[in-house]
Amino acid sequence: MLKENVLPHLLIADDLEWQFKTGVGRARQGRNRVKGSIRELELMAANLRLGGENRAADELDGDIMAMLEKKICRKIINRSRKEQKMLHMGPA
Fold this sequence. Notes:
Blueprint: H1 13-22, H2 33-50, H3 54-89
Helix pairs in contact: 1-2, 2-3
């Protein structure tokens, strides 16, 4: 049984569209811009698959993977820059 004040976990495409329209799926717009656009691409890919266009959906999945790889690489680069900065500062 669901609690009254809790939104259930939504899995179907129509509910995801509702989340995007109402802004429920967007938390901290500036920081999670890539995350939101990935979700939108996943929604588009799901709609294409439902329509029977698997090739276009596979291309979108490739775009999603490229965005995720870019985001992960950016995090690793920033982390290594911070570590290098701490090494060059030396003991206080």
